[in-house]
Each structure stands twice: as C-alpha cells, then as structure tokens.
C-alpha cells in the first residue's frame, strides 16, 4: 500500500477525553475513529490489525476442533425469556421490535441462540462433544463507555460454545480451551494470566478470566506471592487468622456508647482496633427478604459472594425506617437479637470478646463471643480479600493486581439445557439428558486495544509481528530520483514476493516520515538513503524490538 | 474434517414452505437454519462457503484499490436525518434507543455513516479518489421474508463507497468497479448481466444491477434481442410507434357511453383496440398535489418513472370523492378539462382520433387529438416496457427476463455530500467542494443462495470449486479394515498437504454415504474401494462437472 493512497491520515492531536497512550495513538495514527460514544469505526489500518488477530484466534480455535459458524445478531426475545436472563444480565440489553411487533434482543452474548439452534437437531451421545464458535458484533448498553475499545458498547467478539455428554468430558475440554487461549495470547504477544472468577449472569459454577496486567484494567484480582493462587476479587478467599486467641472470654455487658455510626467511630470511641468490632448490616434481597449480615470490623463485605450465597441477583441496604421496624437502629445493629435470617463471615470466629451494637440507640454490647452468645444461620466466606491477607493454604500472602480481561472461559453446566425445552441428547441408556455446556469468549477490539496499550512508547505504537498492520514500513530519505526509484522498485519487488508493505511515497520531509512511522508503529522499518543505495544496502529497524541493522537489499525481494 | 464430528447433520425433509431446490438442499444438507423468519444461522458448512465467497470479493476489491474497514452497526439516527432518508428508504428502518434515550438506526445501507466518517478528515484534492468497503450485517424489515437468503431481513453485505474530486474521475472508477464485479461473479461461476436500473432511495442518477437470470429472481428486466440494450423494467424505454398515421384527424364529438370503467370495458363497448383509448388517472403526490396523468390505453403506467418525474417519494390514486371534487368521474376522466397539472406519456402523440372520457358520467369524447384538442404540461416516458416493444434505436425488439440481483453499483453524485454538512474537500482552486460519490454492494448470503439455486440437480447441490465448502469429499466403501485404513491415511496425507477434505468416517452404508455426498455437493469426490486399493488407485468424481475417472492415489498427497 502506498501511504499517499491510504484512507485515514495521521493527525496531531486528540480530544482531551482520551486518557491513555494506546488509544491516543490508535486515533492519531488513523487506526480507529469513534462514531457515537463506545462505538467505533475501524479504518483500513485498524482493520488490518483486527483481521490478523481474528486469523490467529480462528486458527487456534480450529486446531482445538472448534467449528466456525454464525448466528443472527437479532435474537428472538422469547429465547432469553426461557432462561429469564432478560432480568439477570448485568449490562443493559438493547431491544428492538420489528414492523409486526415481534421483540428482539441485540445479542450481548449468545448462549440462548446457540441452544435454540442445537436443539433443532436430534442428538445422540455419539454426536457429542462439539464446539461451535462465531465472530460477531455484540451490544452492551454500558452506563459509561470509557477507555476506547477497552469497554465499548458495540464490539466484535469471538464467542464459542461447547456441548458435552458428561461433566468429565466437559472438564477435559475446558482444560483444552484454556491451553488454546494461552496459545492464542502467546502468539499475540500478550502475557496473560488465567484468573478464577465468578460466573455472574452466565449461569454455571466457575470460570476463568484471561487477564493482562495493566493499570487501565477493570479486573482487580489477588495473586499469592508464591504464585500458586490467583483469583478475581469477586471470589478470592483467604484465612481468617485468630486475632487474640490468648484472651479469656469475658462476661457479656451492655454499655452506654455515645459514638458515631461507623466502624472508624467505634475505633475512636474505644481506642481499640477495628477487628475488635462486629459490623452488622441489614440487606434486602430481590424477594424483599431482610437478612442480617455480620462481619469482623476490619473486613469489607463482598456483596457478590453474599448474593451467590443467598441465590439472588440483587441486594440493597435496608433503610433507616426498615431497620427501626425490625427493632434496631442504624449503627447499633447486632447479631444478637433481630428475628430475621442471619449470615456471618468466617471471621466471626477469629476474635474473642467482640464489641457490637445493642440494638438500642447509643448502646453497645461488649465481650460478645461467637458460639457462646450468638450463632448465625449461615457462617460462610463473604469477605473481600485484600493485599496482605494469608492464602488458604497458610503458605503465602496475597498481593493485589489490576488487569484487562481479554478473554474468558465459563463452565455453564446444565444451566441452559435445563431451562430451555428440548435441549437434550439421547444417552447410551436410551434416555434423554440435558447436555453439559461451556462457553468461551475473546473480545477482539479489546485485545487489539490491549496490544496498543502494552506496546507503545512516548513516540507511538510498537506492533508485534502477529498484529502489525503491515510487516514493513518502507521509507526513502531525500528527493534524489535514484533513491526514490530504488525504493519504488523495492516496494514492487516486495509486494510481488507476497510481503505486506506500507510505502511512504509522500512528498514530505524525512522528519515527518520518521515521526509518522514511529506513530504507526509497524513492526519493521526499511530505510533507503543515498549512501545506502550506493552500497546496495538498506537499513532495517525493528520498531518492536528497537534494533537497527544494515543489510543487503536482496534479502527482501528474494 | 471428519464427517462424524461435523456439527449440522443432513436431514431428510424440510418444511413445505420451502419452495426452491437450492434452499431445500441448503437446509437438508446442514448449511443453514432459519432463526426467526428471514434471519439465518450459518452452520459450519455454510460458513465455509460464505468465507470462500468473501475471500473472492475481498481479493478483487483490494485489486481494484479499495480498502477494507468497518463501521458500527448502530447508526446515530441524526446522520440519517441529515439526508432525510429516514423518510425515503423503501424498506422499513429498524430503530432502537439506548438507555439514555439516544436513537439509532440498524444499518440497512451505510452512505450516511461513511460520509460522517470521511468528513472528519480535512481532505484536499490530492487525497482523492479513494474507495472504502466493509463486510457487515445489514437489516431490512421486509414485509415478507421469502426465498430463504434470497430476501432476508438480516444479511451479510459487502458495501463499498468511493469518493472523487470530479464526475470524470468517478465515471472512470465506476467502469473499473463494473469490471471488478464481473471478475468477482465470473470467479464464483455466476453468469451475470449488468442491468441499468433506477437509483430509488439511494439518491444519485443511475445504477446497474448485476443479475443472474433465474425464475426465482425479483428483478424483471428487458433486453433487446440484438443484445445491445439491457435495462430494469423500472427504467426500460422503448419507441411509441405510430398506430394509425394514415388516418385523418376527425372532428371532436361527445357521445353517450353506458360502458364499464376499465379500458377493457371500452374495448368491448366500441369494438376497437385498446390503443384507441386514452387512460387518464388522477394521482396524489406526497405533498397532496393532485396530478392528472394520461397514457395510451394499451400501455401500463410505470409509477416509478412517474415518481421520479414528479420528484416525489410516494404516489397514491385519488379517491372517488376527490375526483368528483375536481369535476370529473372515475372511469370518465379526460386530459381535456381538469384544471390541475397534467402529465402525459409519449404515446399520446402516436394515435389519431383517440377516444377518452368527457368528465361526465357515461359520456365519452371521440376523435381527440394531441396538439389540436389538448396538450399536457409534461410529455415524457412514463410507460412500462414489455416484451415485443421496439428499442429506442428502432433496430430490435425487447424480450423480458427475470433474475436475481446479486450486486449493484450506484452513481450517487453529490447527493449525500451536498446534504451532509462538511462533506467536502479543498479543491486545487482553493475552494471547498462536495465530493462526488459512488457505492457498490454485493449481498453475500444472496450470492451463496444463488450459487445453490443455479448449481443443483435432482439429487442435491453441485458447488463450483470457488465456493465449495471443502475441495474433496472422501468416501471409503465397505467395512474392510484395509480399505478404511487406506482412506484414513489418505485423509491425513491430504490434510498435511493443505487440501480441504471432508472425510466420511461414519459407520453407515455406501448408499447413505453416496446420497449424502450428492446432497452436500462438494466439488470433487474421491472414492476408495477394495478393488481400487489393490491397484493403489482411487476414483475421482467431479460433482460439479459430473465427470468420473480413476487415478493414481499419489496425485493427492504429493
């Protein structure tokens, strides 16, 4: 391609809303443009990068036995109603009606669509397993679109779905897909970690995010210092170490306590550390049940763990009036008296002689001990892990990381096949069974953006070979006709040899050519100058590796 | 690919709503499945065909200098409002609002989106011309979806857009694109004709449809018997031959006429041919103007020509009361008296002594002659051409054809760039000018379906090499372990050599294997049997060419 003919010139400046280098360069270099917020055009340069990324994904998915297909973008809403996911997904579903009034969902994920297809076939055990996948535009009506294509409202996604006769067969394939994902991201030069995470609105029991460490990422996760443990904050676990096991249990008493309502206020009032207190919160579930939830004062509640424990999609804090009606006061709720379902974190057994409220205004209960003075209906892990917490095997401490989730794999179990009628296969036992499923996503635009964020410097982008829009950027220095002619012949020779080359044939200064080449960041640069032409040599500069060498011209056109 | 692992088994029967062989085989063979009406899944076999078709289109578009990119599927509605096409497109636009209430159009064509992108760049004359294109899902809320993917509501389309500094530059490129389209369809073994047609809601002045002759097609067009003329019925022209030039003009008279209201009733009443009559119709435009339109009795009105002539998007027939209010009667309207704008077809000058109504009930006017007794405000071509009409050059007669429109190219002129603010370039004269545009579409799903319809017989599909999902279909006959092993090794050898092979490894009879092979229609079939193995030979059968030969095995794995 001759640069003079390329659609999408580089520009000098971008809007001040663009906060990251990678995004700035993608826009300035003419790779992408925003349409409405969170929806992007890919210009020819960006398209070439995306095509290369898709090819890598496709090759590896095919190697793993997955079969490419495609489903419509407009999903009949009735499929989503079968699983009730119309109510449970965490992103806003976009919906549209056709002229006859039929409702459709703009697909944000396609489990229902794939099951609706697969159940059209009479499957027997020997037709399983199989995995089908597609590249398709997905829609998520995010409240805020930010970070360019890192969190877009419309984006290309590779989504795969596997169908199995048994849990064991699924588990082996899940492992195979995990390895496939590592191969994909390795080929794309993205160092990923597989992070255990919560399934959320996907149904099923477990999943793994593929995460690239980066401060722009929205995935916060915990890794053990010895590297043996890695989990998303939503599910990360840790040991509740005993804080004061040498203390004797003291007699329970009630004391006047004209303190503020927060844990910090209690710390100041008593001059004791936060772990001495029990923090009790009344939540209301989506079925309007009030639940009393207690945790050690120095820990934060993990509401997602709590939701899963309670089997609900949403939780809200009870209001002041609701708490009063239950017989207590905000700031003075205790796990001792309220006659509602009680949930407690594992940490409630890690302290002797807790201080907690007394369910009366400005009164606390002192020397409260779990087991002796109260128990809860469910004692479970509902705390948020943080840096410094000890791993469950007691061998290491947790550190916090932040990263970009470029892919994910989900166990779905029989969540969909049990909810959708006819989603079954004929077993060897002559009976019909729901199939066991998994699903596997990669955000293509997000992957592209992550490469751009990871591989850029103060001058521009630095594409790895796997995703560079062209392999070579050819530059001729000066206006010497012989040099220009030499470069032109070289361009044509390389093109004939099947290389992908961007030839800067513009009549601009060498400075402009070099700074644009730095901005575009094509993996390798070839420079032709008068001196080099005379020696029949060229300069080869690897933008990615930042290495320069002079070589024989012939190496490129053979 | 081993057939036992392929997702999408062949089935025996399809719904009785499926009316064409190609569609039936695509469904039975496991290439496609319908989701909601007019929206399709592509199963792995269909996906492979589509990918091959896309690759041919992409290669040829790139050769023609076009650059691939992509635009969002959700178009901000305000872009469509700039051109007022929200009101003028002939298909129903699907629209959706996001959570913040912003309106989007589900793209059915992307001129506005592309101009909205291109105008973000400051272009000068030397940045022109360029052509950008995408493959993207398009939405058209058709009243009736029929013929499978021939007229779908959601479909993949290749749409390209070119931008030029001058009409001359555009015209040269339009010609180049036309040649590019012929190359694409030739490579896909689709015999296409380029048919001049009406631009309709696209703006601009002319366009060409690329049409494959087929009875399932919805494009009706006229070709001259000498092959020199070819045009869509919407615009086809012809000579109005003089019907009775030897007659003398007779004195005009009014006669009682207790006849029915149609032309046919007039024919019966007078015992004279239909061409003796003038048919006059009152239309009402979309600005509520009543227009009197007259044509020779034996010709049909071409309402599209009339709309273009009047510059309106819609026309309706005036009601009985409206005609009464204007001073006439349905069935007795004449071009002689009504005081509204009058339009006439060229044929009004081709007859002497017409018979027409008298704008009174049961009264006709006889011996009416154009020029002597009346004239119209606009005399133009507003008739529908039909088989047997004489071409404008008087040298040939027209024949009617019906075909499937697989692609189209449009001159758009400055229609969009004049309506959309800032859609301009800096000319060599230092002034800003709107750019001159063209657009170029190919319906990918429709192309796939057309190949299937064109190349099928009573047993199934017959894919040409350019679009066959696999190059070879490998079949082993019988259960002899040596034969199966031979086939398996051959399969692996061919795969290693980079061939695409579907290997029927199922434990089913030879009859089932052959009938499935006929149904799937993979271009070439390789049959391995005991006799052939002993001779180290295989049978090669071209399903496309219906030719069979026996050859050395080695030819396939070298």
Q: What's the number of domains of chain A?
A: 3
CATH architecture label of the largest domain in chain A: 2-Layer Sandwich
Highest CATH level, the class of the largest domain in chain A = Alpha Beta
Q: Work out the oligomeric state of the chains in this entry.
A: homodimer
CATH topology assignment of the largest domain in chain A: BirA Bifunctional Protein, domain 2
Task: Compute the number of strand runs of chain A.
Answer: 30
Report the end-to-end length of chain A measured between terminal Cα atoms. 19 Å
Number of helices of chain A: 14
Instruction: Show unreliable segments of chain A.
Output: none
Largest sheet of chain A: 9 strands, mixed
Largest interface: A-B, 56 and 56 residues
Strand residues, percent of chain A: 25-35%
What's the average pLDDT of chain A? 93
Helix content, binned percent of chain A:
10-25%
Provide the CATH superfamily of the largest domain in chain A.
Answer: Bira Bifunctional Protein, Domain 2
What's the gyration radius of chain A in Å? 30 Å
Given helix and strand content, the structural type of chain A is alpha+beta
Outline of chain A: globular
């Amino acid at each position: 391609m001759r640069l003079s003919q390329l659609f999408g010139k580089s520009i000098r400046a971008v809007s001040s809303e663009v906060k990251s280098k990678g995004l700035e360069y993608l826009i300035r270099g003419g790779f992408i443009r925003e349409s409405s917020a969170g929806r992007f055009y890919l210009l020819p340069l960006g398209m070439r990068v995306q095509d290369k990324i898709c090819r890598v994904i496709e090759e590896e998915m095919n190697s793993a036995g997955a079969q490419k297909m495609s489903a419509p973008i407009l999903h009949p809403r009735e499929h989503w109603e079968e699983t009730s996911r119309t109510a449970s997904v965490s992103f806003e579903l976009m919906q549209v009606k056709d002229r006859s009034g039929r409702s459709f969902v703009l697909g944000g994920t396609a489990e229902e669509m794939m099951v609706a297809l697969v159940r059209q076939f009479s499957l027997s055990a020997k037709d399983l397993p199989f995995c089908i996948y597609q590249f398709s535009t997905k829609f998520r009506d995010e409240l805020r679109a930010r970070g360019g294509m890192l969190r877009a409202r419309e984006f290309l996604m590779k989504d795969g779905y596997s169908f199995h006769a048994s849990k064991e067969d699924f588990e082996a394939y899940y492992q195979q897909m995990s390895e496939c994902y590592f191969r994909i991201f390795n080929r794309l030069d993205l160092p990923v970690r597989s992070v255990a995470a919560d399934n959320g609105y996907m149904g099923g029991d477990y999943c793994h995010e593929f995460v690239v460490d980066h401060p722009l990422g929205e995935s916060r996760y915990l890794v053990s210092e010895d590297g043996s443990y890695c989990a998303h904050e939503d599910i990360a676990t840790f040991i509740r170490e005993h804080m004061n096991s040498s203390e004797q249990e003291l007699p329970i008493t009630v004391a006047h306590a004209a303190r503020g309502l927060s844990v910090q206020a209690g710390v100041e009032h008593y001059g004791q550390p936060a772990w001495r207190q029990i923090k009790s919160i009344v939540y209301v579930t989506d079925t309007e049940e009030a639940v009393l939830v207690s945790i050690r004062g120095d820990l934060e509640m993990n509401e997602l763990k709590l939701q899963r424990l309670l089997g609900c999609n949403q939780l809200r804090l009870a209001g002041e009036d609701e708490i009063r009606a239950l017989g207590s006061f905000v700031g003075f709720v205790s796990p001792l008296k309220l006659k509602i379902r009680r949930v407690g974190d594992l940490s409630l057994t890690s302290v002797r002689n807790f201080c907690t409220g007394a369910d009366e205004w400005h009164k606390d209960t002192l020397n409260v001990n779990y087991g002796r003075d109260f128990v809860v209906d469910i004692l479970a892990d509902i705390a948020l892990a943080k840096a410094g917490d000890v791993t469950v095997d007691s061998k290491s401490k947790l550190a916090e990381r932040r990263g970009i989730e470029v892919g994910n794999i989900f166990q779905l179990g029989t969540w969909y096949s049990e909810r959708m009628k006819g989603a079954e296969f004929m077993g060897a036992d002559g009976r019909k069974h729901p199939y066991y499923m998994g699903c596997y996503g990669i955000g293509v635009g997000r992957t592209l953006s992550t490469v751009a964020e990871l591989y850029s410097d103060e001058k521009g982008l630095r594409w790895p070979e796997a995703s560079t829009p062209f392999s070579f950027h050819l530059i001729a220095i000066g206006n010497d006709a012989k040099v220009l002619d030499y470069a032109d012949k070289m361009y044509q020779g390389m093109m004939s040899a099947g290389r992908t080359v961007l030839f800067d044939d513009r009549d601009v200064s060498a400075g402009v050519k070099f700074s644009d080449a730095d901005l575009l960041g094509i993996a390798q640069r070839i420079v032709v100058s008068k001196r080099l032409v005379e020696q029949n040599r060229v300069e080869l500069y690897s933008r990615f590796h930042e290495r320069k060498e002079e070589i024989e011209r012939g190496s490129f056109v053979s």
